[in-house]
What we know:
Blueprint: E1 4-7, E2 18-22, H1 24-37, E3 42-46, H2 64-77, E4 83-86, E5 113-114
Parallel strand pairs: 2-3, 2-4, 4-5
Antiparallel strand pairs: 1-3
Amino acid sequence: xxxxxxxxxxxxxxxxxxxxxxxxxxxxxxxxxxxxxxxxxxxxxxxxxxxxxxxxxxxxxxxxxxxxxxxxxxxxxxxxxxxxxxxxxxxxxxxxxxxxxxxxxxxxxxxxxxxxxxxxxxxx
Length: 124
């Protein structure tokens, strides 16, 4: 089972959850409290082999399709259409594809957004 850390709740002003992708532990320490405090449901996913998510093989052997599967499974549990927030591997692969855009995996997980190392005042 993948590590998923969930804080805050959706509301009328912010009806769509934010899904932080890559390492839940990092997002928990730096982003989830901030966004939950601002009225958002903020959820962090640790991809396979990251944080407390298990791995069955060396982390470098996972493909972008594996990441897509992790993101899609978590998005489906959140209602299917969260705003995906990430950096680096969690947002795009070296070949330019984005997790959720793989045509073999069905419709994309929409609305990708990059992120800075910490919340920037005035950007929320």
